[in-house]
Amino acid sequence: MEHTETTIKPPAGITINFKELWQFRELFYFFTWRDIKVKYKQTFLGIAWAILQPLAFMLLFTFIFSKTLKLDFSVAIPYPVFVLSGIIVWNLFNASVSHAGESMIQNAAIIKKIYFPRLIIPTSALLVSLFDFFMAFIIFLAITFCYQPIQWTALVYFPAAILLCLLAAFGAGSFLSALNVKYRDFRYAVPFLLQLLFFASQVIYPVNVIKNTQLKYLLALNPVNGALELFRAPLTGLAPDMLLVSISISTTLLLCVAGIIYFRKTESYFADIA
Amino acid sequence: MPPIIEIQKLGKKYSVREVQPYLALRDVVSERIKNIFSKKGNATNDFWALHDLSLTIEKGERVGIIGRNGAGKSTLLKILSRITPPTTGEIKLRGRVASLLEVGTGFHPELTGRENIYLNGSILGLPKKEIDQKLDEIIDFSGVEKFMDTSLKHYSSGMQLRLAFSVAAHLEPEILMIDEVLAVGDMEFQKKCIGKMEEVSKTNGRTILFVSHDLSAISSLTNKCIFLDNGQIRSFGITQDIIGQYASFQKKSITYQQEILRQEPTITKVQLSTSEGNAVHGNGKPLSIVFDVYMPEDDMKNMNLSVQIFNQLGKPATYNWLFDYNQPFCRKKGINTIKIFYPNLKLYKGSYFIRVHLAETKTKQKFQQLDCCYFDVEMLNMTEPDWGWQTDVCQYLEEATWIVNDEV
Fold this sequence. Notes:
CATH architecture of the largest domain in chain B: 3-Layer(aba) Sandwich
Distance between the termini of chain B: 71 Å
Largest sheet of chain B: 6 strands, mixed
CATH topology of the largest domain in chain B: Rossmann fold
Number of strands of chain B: 18
Mean pLDDT of chain A: 88
Distance between the termini of chain A: 36 Å
Structural class of chain A: mainly alpha
Largest sheet of chain A: none
Shape of chain A: globular
Strand content of chain B: 25-35%
CATH superfamily of the largest domain in chain B: P-loop containing nucleotide triphosphate hydrolases
Number of helices of chain B: 9
Helix content of chain B: 25-40%
Radius of gyration of chain B: 25 Å
Structural class of chain B: alpha/beta
Strand order of the largest sheet of chain B: 5-6-7-3-8-9
Number of helices of chain A: 12
Number of domains of chain A: 1
Largest interface: A-B, 38 and 49 residues
Shape of chain B: globular
Order of helices and strands of chain B: EHHEEHEEHHHEHEHEEHEEEEEEEEE
Low-confidence stretches of chain A: none
Mean pLDDT of chain B: 83
Oligomer: heterodimer
Strand content of chain A: under 5%
C-alpha cells in the first residue's frame, strides 16, 4: 500500500500545490461532467441551447444594424460572420466568469463537508462554458464557410484567442468566486459589470470605428478585445494589432495573479464563512 | 512504527465575526468608518474552540470522541479532515484519509443513482477505477438496484440514505473519520453498515475516529475514547472508563446558570425541581423546569423554546415545544420567566438530562442549544417486579390495565 503522510498546519504562504491538483484530477472531470449533465437534463432542446442563443443574437444584430439602421461599420468580413465570431467569444468569457464567480457558493454544501483543492471548483465551471463554446464553435465554422474561406493561420490564432479568453476568465472568476463567499454583494454587481463590459468589447462593432487611438488602446485593457483581435485575424486576413493584443495579455496575467493570490488567501476559511 | 495520527499543541480560534454567516460589504465599510472615528481598532471577540490539544493515536485504534455541545468535537474533526485550518499547532496523518461528515456529500437530485455513486465516490476520494470495480457490490449492498437509472429526486429519503451509506461503507482508507452521520436512517441498515465497517477495520487494522452523542454507538464501535471539554482533552483511555467518567462529570447539578455575555437572547437560568432531594425524581411524580431567558429588546416576536429529556445513552425520550404564535412569551426586554410542568412524568428508572433549544422561527436563527440539569429517576412507591428494576427495558412506563379470561 502506498505510504501517504499529510501534515496539517496553519495556513502560510500562497503557493499552488500542482501535485495535489494532479492527484485530484478526476474531480475536475466529475464536477464538469455533473454540471454539463445537470444543465441539459430536463431541457427539451438540450445542447441545442448552446447554439440557439448565439444564432438568435447574430440574426438580431444583423437585422438591426445592417438592415434597419443601415449602419456601415466597414468591416472587412460579412457582418453576420463578424457578429457571430464576437458573440461566441464573448459568451465564452461571460459564461465562464459568471459561472466561476457563483461556483463556490453553489458548492458551499460540499465545501463545508469535505476537503479537496478548492481551485477545482471555479476551474470546472470554466470547463463547462468551454464545452458550450465548442458546440457554438462548430456552427460558427459551418456558417462562416457559407460566406467566406478561413485562413490557415486560424490553427494558431483560434487556440490562442480561446486560451487568452479562458485565462482572463479564470483570473476574474476565481477572484470573484472568493469575493462572493465573503461578500455576497458581488452576486448582484457581477451581471451588471459584465453587461458594461459587453459594450466595451468589440463584439458588435469593429475596433476601427474608434478613431481615437488612445481610447482604442485603453479599451484593449479589456482582455476580450485582445481575444477578439486574435480570433478575427484569420477571418479578415489582416495581421492582428500586436500592441493591442499585448495590452490584453498583460491585463490577463495580472487578473490571473491577483485571482489566484486572493483565492488562495481566503480559501482555507471558506468552510467557516460560506 | 510512528503513530498514525499525531496532534501537537493544536488550537483553533474563531473571532465572532467569522461565526456570522457571511458579510455584506456595507457592514465592513461602515465598521471601518466607525473605527476611524472611535479610534478603538477592531473590537474582536475571540473564542478558542480548541486549545493546546496534543494527542497520538496508534494504527488500528478505534477512537470515540465525546463531550458536551461546544466542547470542540466537530471542530477537531473538521481540522483533521482539512475542511478548516488550525490556528496553531501541527497534525501529522500517516495514511489515506476519508472523512464522513455527512452521508451523500455532493449528491445531486437530477442525476441517476448510478451517476451519483460515481460523483459521491470521487468526492470522497475513491478513484474512478476503484468505483468501476466496486460498482456492483455497492449497488447490491444498497438494496435499491431497481432504481439505479432513476433520478435521485424520485428516491425516498430512506433510499437516498441507503445509497449514500453504501458508497461510504465501501471506502477503504487507513484512517476513517465519522461525525454523527450514523444517527440518521433506519436502524436495520445502519447496523449493516457499521457491521461492514467493523469487519474491515478489524481485519485490516483500520483506524477510526468517531464523534457522536450516542453513547451506545460509541461503546459498541470504539475501544478507546477521548473526552473533550472546553476545547481540551479531559481524559483519554479505554472507552468504558471514559463513558463512566463522562456520565459522572455531567451529574453535577439540577441548576444551570449563565451570565449574559452578548446582546442576544440567552438562557440565563434553568432550574429543575425533582420530587425528591439530591437530583432524584420519583417515577410518575410531577416535575417542573423553570427557565430564565434574557431578551436584549422589547417585542421580539416569533420566539421558540423547546425542551427534550435525554436518557443516559443520549437518546431523546420526550419533546415539548412552545411557540410565540401559540402563546406569546419572551416579549419584554430583560429577564423573562417560563415554566414547563409535567403533571406525571412517567420516565423509567435511569439517568436523564435536559436539552433546551432557543430559536426564532421567522429567521430560523438558533440562539442556543444546551444540555443541563442531570437527574436520576427512581421507581418509588411502586411494587418491584420479582426480577427487580432492570435497566434498559424501556424508556417510560405507560399506564395500562390487564384483563384476563372471562372478563375479556
